[in-house]
Amino acid sequence: MLEERRAIVDDLSGVTRDRQYGEAEWSGKFFNVIDTGGFVPKSEDIFEKEIRKQVLIAIEEADAIIFMVDVTTGITDLDQAMAGMLRRTSKPVFLVVNKVDNHDRLLEASEFYSLGFDQIHFLSSISGTGSGDLLDDITALIGNDPEPEDKQLPKFAIIGQPNVGKSSLLNALTGQERTIVSEIAGTTRDTIHTHYNLFNKEFILIDTAGIRRKAKVSEDLEFYSVIRAIKAVDEADVCMLVLDATKGVTAQDLSIFAMAVKKGKGVVVLVNKWDLMEKETNTARDYEKELKQRFLPFSDLPVLFISATEKIRIFKGIEEALQVYENRQRKIPTSKLNDIMLKAVEAYHPPVVRGNSVKIKYVTQLPVVVPSFAFFCNYPDDVKTPYKNYLENKLREKFQFTGVPIRVFFRKK
Fold it and tell me: Which of 2, 201, 208, 355 lies 20 to 30 angstroms, CA to CA, from 156?
């Protein structure tokens, strides 16, 4: 329905845990699709209990419900339980019998009429056979209002290692149980998109699976989860890197940070579980100083000490992310850029290399997403990293680029 591989698919039951949202289009009409985990009533399994909550929330949110069953298993007790629940709703319910990909299975599928639903469809999800009729019936419920203009909203990805509190942070920000939270690493598997529109602030929040070192990723499902987390970083404008205050900055945290910076994303560092720290031995100032030392050379970062469970300073984190988003969008007029940066060059000339005196004549901002600047000079290959860092620091000092990676290039004049 989404025409992309958004949800993880596997023969193992219980793969889908959180609600998975996507936007579909059919015959010029747009609608949202919510995929849910398998509904298991009265189960005491920790995940199946939480999935049950997520399914009930999705049913509450939806305007219409697609009740999917499997022709190869026939009508099961779980199907009967779900059918009994859905018969009590006033919302349109489409009974979809899946895996009907030949004539024999079509005959077998007729038993599902006994579930008592008016609208029944026989299809094969994997090949798409029969899905057009279902989509026709779904879009018939949608009016012919003009499509709203595509609004480019900021996208913030919540990234970090497993169990640092990413899903807890998302739930605290939205004020609802948007994702399942547990002590078990790997609870979040898909990337979860949430449209946030509260307190005059509007953006897309993306919760991701925890990213562990490759050596620790053993099951296929977690591998695909990590791939999706990395894709979420690609999609985001700003990454909210969540750290565990009780563990400090680990090598894996630095790897995740380096990945976000390499991809040119804005970064806000959120040190979670700060309420668990002993304040006498760990002041925020000392902790931040040590943390920024680990992130060198890119240390011009907003750092906040938060508690997702206690909701301490979490909304300040959103304000910082919005500011970093604004910094990343900043375009400096060429005249102003030259006026300020050529004075910085005059104050500290590039070192002479092999008897060559490097002369920078002109600077301009390049028309790309990541703030990038081209310095035109006579010997671009002779400008070394220390001087490049000097110019980057001056750009940060004179213009507001906190939390944003800057690219500096030297070109032949």
Answer: 2
- pLDDT one-digit tens code per residue, 245-300: 888 888 888 888 988 998 899 999 999 999 888 665 568 888 889 899 999 888 89
Coil vs helix vs strand at 287: helix
Which pairing describes strands 65-70 and 93-98: parallel, antiparallel, or unpaired? parallel
Note the residue count of the chain.
Answer: 413
Q: How far apart are CA 27 and CA 147, in angstroms?
A: 12
Cα–Cα distances (Å) from 98 to 7, 129, 178, 183, in that order, read: 17, 10, 28, 35
Would you give the DSSP letter of residue 73? T
Report for 56-60, 156-160, 207-211: range of highest mean pLDDT: 156-160
Residues pairing with 67 in the sheet: 95
Residue 307 corresponds to which amino acid?
S
Distance in angstroms (rounded) separating the CA atoms of residues 34 and 53: 14
Rounded distance between C-alpha atoms, residue 57 and residue 350, angstroms: 61
- Residue 243 makes CB contacts below 8 A (sequence gap 6+) with 160, 164, 249, 253, 269, 270, 271, 272, 291
Helix orientation angle between 385-398 and 334-347, rounded to the nearest 10 degrees: 130
Question: How far from 299 is each of 164, 233, 302, 331, CA to CA, in Å?
Answer: 21, 20, 9, 22
Single out the residue of 95, 125, 97 nearest to residue 5, CA to CA. Answer: 125
Handedness of CA 21, 26, 31, 36 (dihedral sign): negative
Pairing of strands 201-207, 119-122: unpaired
| CA angle, residues 8, 173, 59, in degrees to nearest 5 | 50
**What ranges in 195-353 are assigned the alpha helix state H?**
220-235, 251-262, 284-294, 314-329, 334-347
Q: What are phi and psi of 221, to 5 degrees?
A: -60, -40
What's the pLDDT at 223? 42
Burial tier of 390 (Cβ tally within 10 Å: 0-12, 13-18, 19+): middle
Which has the higher per-residue pLDDT, 157 or 175? Answer: 157
End-to-end Cα spacing for the chain:
52
Q: Is the distance from CB of 169 to CB of 270 less than 8 angstroms?
A: yes
